[in-house]
Amino acid sequence: MARDTFNARQPGYIHIDDDTALHYRDWGDDAPLVFLSGWTLNADMWNYQCAPLADAGFRCVAYDRRGHGRSSDPGRGYDYDTLADDLEAVLSARDLARVTLVGHSFASGEIVRYLSRHGSRRVAGIVLVSPASTPFLLKTADNPGGLDPSLFEASIEEMLTSFPDWISRRAEAYFSPGTAHTVIQWTADMMLDASLYGAAQLSRVQMITDFRRELAAIDVPALVLHGDCDASAPLEITGHPTAAALENAVLKVYEGGTHGMYFNHAARVNDDIRAFVTRWQA
After folding, report:
1. Ranges assigned E (strand) in the chain
2. What confidence tens digit (pLDDT) does each residue in 122-155 have?
3. Active site includes 230?
4. Catalytic annotation, pick one of 37, 71, 72, 105
């Protein structure tokens, strides 16, 4: 049952070092959910999860990774190890345990690296929404279904030439058909607010990082939510093999779902997260 009000703490910053502070918001009580945003997005992308889930009795913590949103852009630390350490700093600063980590797109890799680097002592389960970093994107001899590296390099070169144009060419396919232009612009504004240098570095890291062994070592329950019309992270390259690599995972495929299904299918995403957490937190 929804509450009349929820505990909304003042947003603030977690200081990693002299050059780096991460902006966070922390709403609600009880079972904690920590939201990690997609590449170049920030905590605002989770507005349509955090508000209703906090109202339903969950504690929702969302933060902007370094170089994104309101957080610092130190010009370094754009690698999975550092991002995993940043996540540990957030969990420690907010004194969180038995957390469900919820990550979109690029953040799937962050969550996997966190678990391999810091273990699961704070983590009860994970939810990967439209995972785009796992298991391994690059085409190699032992990963023939991956993508040619020239595609990544061409995308990065295009982005560094004109990121607004890069976004514009991909915007409509990101959301479901008929999505309002205001929603698309809201998302583009978030992306343009990110560090361009950081975005390019993270794209390169995402391309070359092989998470297959790390995924296989994860023993906490996992929920993978993926759309069958995801142009940014095709289901057969990311969602299906990610779920198959995890020891204890459930894959839910959203018919007609795109990479932006956290918005277009927000109610269903929220229901699936709620049911998953309720089951494993019991």
Report:
1. 12-17, 20-27, 32-36, 59-63, 99-104, 123-129, 222-227, 249-254
2. 999 999 999 999 999 999 999 999 999 999 999 9
3. yes
4. 105
Cα 252 from Cα 269, distance rounded (Å): 10
Predicted pLDDT of residue 128: 99
19 has catalytic annotation: no
Please state the φ and ψ torsions of residue 16, each to the nearest 5 degrees. -85, -45
Structure tokens at 98: 């038995």
Residue 213: is it exposed, middle or buried by C-beta count within 10 angstroms (0-12/13-18/19+)? exposed
Residue 10: phi, psi to the nearest 5? -65, 135
pLDDT digits (tens, 9 = 90+) for 234-271: 999 999 999 999 999 999 999 999 999 999 999 999 99
CATH topology for the 12-281 domain: Rossmann fold (3.40.50)
Domain boundaries, the chain: 12-281
pLDDT band at 173 (very low <50, low <70, confident <90, very high): very high
* Burial class of residue 219 in the structure, from the number of CB atoms within 10 Å of its CB (0-12 exposed, 13-18 middle, 19+ buried): exposed
Secondary structure (3-state) at 100: strand
Query: Strand, helix or coil at 216?
Result: helix
Choice among 72, 230, 265, 272 that is catalytic: 230
Active site residue 259: yes
Name the catalytic one among 130, 259, 265, 272: 259
pLDDT tens for 101-113 read 999 999 999 999 9
**pTM for the structure as a whole:** 0.96
From the list 196, 194, 195, 175, the residue with the least C-alpha distance to 184 is 175
